[in-house]
Design goal:
The protein is mostly helical. The protein contains four helices and no strands.
């Protein structure tokens, strides 16, 4: 990564180093996934359903941020009243 930062002014070398870094990241992710699969298989062989489901959930979990924000008026105050919310949505 340091080498990439040093070659920021040279686009061809920067791109070459960037490709190498991406390849290494892909390999590392693949190894990590294989290791987790081995752990799942180990727990399956031991008939440990609790840990199998826990590991599967860990592998397949996707984090989503809650993007709900409160409705505010022009003054920046949070609107609580239902009628005021309707008015805010109309404008």
């Amino acid at each position: 990564m340091e080498e990439r930062r040093q070659n920021k002014g040279n686009p061809m070398e920067y791109k070459r180093i960037q490709c190498i870094i991406k390849q290494e990241i892909r390999k590392a992710k693949g190894k990590e996934l294989q290791e987790k699969c081995r752990e799942i298989e180990h727990h399956q062989n031991m008939h440990d359903d609790f840990n199998v489901h826990r590991k599967v959930r860990e592998v397949t979990r996707k984090c989503h941020k809650n993007n709900c924000k409160p409705l505010v008026n022009e003054a920046g105050e949070i609107i609580i009243d239902a009628e005021k919310k309707k008015e805010a949505w109309k404008t």
